[in-house]
Amino acid sequence: MLEPTMSFGICTLKCTKGFACLLRFYYARFNQSQLPKHSKIFQTLEGCQKGQNVEGLFELKQYLKKLGYLNHVLDHNKFDDHLESAIKAYQINYQLNATGILDADTVKQMVKPRCGFSDLMINSNNFRYINGTGASHYEFFLGNLRWPHSKTHLTYIFRSSVEVPLEEDIRSVCMRAFERWAKVSRFTFEEVEDDDVADIEIGFHSGDHGDGNPFDGPQGTLAHASPPTGGKLHYDGDEYWSTDPGPDEIDLESVTVHEIGHLLGLQHSLEPGAVMYAYFDSGMMFMAFVPFMGYYDGKTLC
């Protein structure tokens, strides 16, 4: 939600800059009790290691499968060799101590808000380890997930299944985000009103919204986008979105720039601070924007 409207009887008080601090305090308190189910479960699993059988490990396996670290998940709570290997791969990729134990630092990383797209696209047990000096600011999807070479002008349309306040602000945020990518790619972008000609559909949704990747409420999966030529960018409508984020608010433009990268064919970077890094800090604006433009200056991506 963006700059919510609050009603008191017949009076409606619209949020202003002067009222922002009070609202941010309220939402910070509210959101702490609205963590996604998996985040609450993971916090109870701290210290778990191979050989244990603990309630909640099945949910952890599902999470790691979604991110690409497991090929399949058996319906049990046993901490087996496969789970240990998956946790080690996750720890290596996020520059954590690779013990295979679900330690405090690993849990802290896992419960952060993030993009819903996987870290790895695997069809075997060969994990993609990227850490240290080997990390990359950007990396293309495996295979031929590209827009046709002749396709250089992409059109987009807004279609949401939940109420979207301040629609004009959202439009301007998306326009700026597309302009950033236009400077470092071969693409130009244009909003259209006709579904039949739109290459990309952008919208806010809640929970299970029909694409097989349900959202989980505040502070979990923030958004997801499909690689070329899927053309879908979905935001979780239950997040507290902002264009000027305070504590426990999510910066809309930061997430938008990231998700457009997926639309253009880029997968996650494992370099902290990179535009394509999967995790986001609440209350922070993605001012990797300046190094982003500097890093890609003179390079044509996608």
Commentary on this structure:
This protein has 302 residues and is α/β, with parallel strands linked by helices. The protein has 8 helices and 12 strands. The chain has helices spanning 17-32, 37-44, 57-66, 81-93, 104-110, 167-182, 252-263, 289-296; strands spanning 5-8, 11-14, 114-115, 139-140, 153-158, 188-191, 200-205, 221-225, 232-236, 241-242, 250-251, 266-267. It has a 6-stranded mixed β-sheet, with helices on one face. Strands 1-2 form a two-stranded antiparallel sheet. Helix 6 crosses helix 7 (252-263). The protein is globular. The chain starts with a strand and ends in a 6-residue tail after the last helix. Ca(2+) 1 binds at residue 239. GO terms for molecular function: metalloendopeptidase activity; zinc ion binding. Zn(2+) 1 binds at residues 209, 211, 224, 234. Pfam families: Peptidase_M10, PG_binding_1.
Secondary-structure topology with pairs:
Elements: E1 5-8, E2 11-14, H1 17-32, H2 37-44, H3 57-66, H4 81-93, H5 104-110, E3 114-115, E4 139-140, E5 153-158, H6 167-182, E6 188-191, E7 200-205, E8 221-225, E9 232-236, E10 241-242, E11 250-251, H7 252-263, E12 266-267, H8 289-296
Parallel strand pairs: 3-8, 5-6, 5-7, 7-9, 10-11
Antiparallel strand pairs: 1-2, 4-12, 8-9
Helix pairs in contact: 6-7
